[in-house]
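Hi P.,

Sorry for the delay on this. The queue was packed all week, but I finally got your sequence through. Input first:
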Amino acid sequence: MKSNKQTGIKSWLKPVKTLALTAIAVCISAHTLAVGEPEKEDLKFGFIKLTDMAPLAIALEKGYFEDEGLFVELEAQANWKVLLDRVITGELDGAHMLAGQPLAATIGYGTKAHIITPFSMDLNGNGITVSNDIWQQMKKHIAQDANGKPVHPIKADALKPVVEEYKKQGKPFNMGMVFPVSTHNYELRYWLAAGGIHPGYYAPHKGDTSGQLQADALLSVTPPPQMPSTLEAGTIYGYCVGEPWNQQAVFKGIGVPVITDYEIWKNNPEKVFGITKEFAEQYPNTTIRLTKALIRAAKWLDANDNANRPEAVKILSKPYYVGADYEVIANSMTGTFEYEKGDKREVPDFNVFFRYHATYPFYSDAIWYLTQMRRWGQIAEHKEDAWYFETAKKVYRPDIYAEAAKALIDDGEADAAEFPDFSSETGFKGPQAEFIDGITYDGSKPNAYLEQLTIGLKASDNL
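Then the structure:
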């Protein structure tokens, strides 16, 4: 069996040999030549045991990294903080990250480091689950269809009287999310606030990073794999997490997923692949090549209306990837989602890896996360719109993505129609209206967007 290094060199020399034999210059495209050989071949990437790490697993298992001359080791990490710290120190060359992590690190919220992302890993993929007891209390406030099933989407309006009763009794209403700058934190907060439940403020300038100031519901960090057991123990009454940990609650009979993030914000960006700015500058060819491999993996995951998903689930169920049972992962990964036990519904876009330009690092996606950091006090002071644009462009790198995509098109591995038009793409999606509260988000007007949100800090607000 050939080594990765040997295979990578052989794949690089093949078009050169063809050129020499045929003297047809078009056999090697300018983009393929521009990428060049990888400066660093041996790489270690980190991930958390969630199904949305799938592009990394598929790029390895399908040989896409190897095709780029890269020998990659994937290593599960204990939690998001450890993962970020190890990327910063260079123990990891890159990692599956929360979309908020590169942004927070770059602006100095928490650990200060310049992290960039050339690749967005997926859309959607999260859910909010509550305990069986809380669900029974919520059901009284939820409309039912003709078959007696709850009408979706379920808004936090149904949870509000439950939270109010806890407050009346002097009991804290505790909920879990995976990290202070996680999509899960912001989605849970968005859902709660849309239902009139205050999720609390951060005040880092005052030394308060609890995120619980003025809160009706108290949110705290719980690592994803520990969510179901923490819920079962009664330490928290609900949580927001990625799969398979919502479906795990259903399988264990300890909780009910009440809403998916697809229903909170249709086709919302989720994880990203993060590397340090220094890595990208020191190893530009390697960076483009690893991005090429990840794009191919994402494309494979969504190909032919998710036809490859059963095979992907089999891969992800291996103990060194996600390690949950096949049935648990398949419950959401193959286009369905089970809410209350037995209430399984078709949700074909619950996990999206390539459709809808899912892999493109849009500036407007970055700006949404920054607005939520400001909304909840993680960014303590008002920032002008220009600051949001500049910060997004420091972290999100569609220029790297475009080089990788163009090389794949020239390699015959992708079609130009599958990507944004790179000659005219601005990095800003048009106004997005499909949020659970009906508020439209326009990434080109961050402060105007913040002013529309009923609960949360506005331009003139300080804690």
